[in-house]
Amino acid sequence: MHPDLIVTLLILLTAANGSPVIAKRVLGERFAWPIDGGLRLRDGRPLFGTSKTWRGLAVAVLATTVVAPLVGLTWQAGLAIGAAAMAGDLLSSFLKRRLGLKSSSQALGLDQVPESLLPQLVMARTLGLTIPDMLAVTLLFFAGELIISRVLFALHVRDRPY
What we know:
single chain, mainly alpha
């Protein structure tokens, strides 16, 4: 296992996951255009939902791109990790809508695993990630996201405790 790399990835995933929350708190609804533009599929449900915005996507990718060099990775690695994390987040939202769950509803595991695992799969070869590394990052991100979300809710940064 590579403990330093695990910490580095957790920092970047936290930046990707947390920066849209902070942007929402700071900017309110400004620039919060839904990625799906309100598109509904044949099932009558939104493609992603209103909580997935271009602002959140841009802020997440920008945050990881800026933070990556500060933790020893290239900005290109940060960009790839942020983009893949947001692709995982969008996949989760798509699946949640297909399951009939509302935007911003909680789906334990589905909310954490794709967002943390997809960037690792994308960067596995480049970073030399092993399966134990990826399991550790995914499990630690899962637990950490649950804890941090509740703390941010208690501090009135998040609207929901998840």
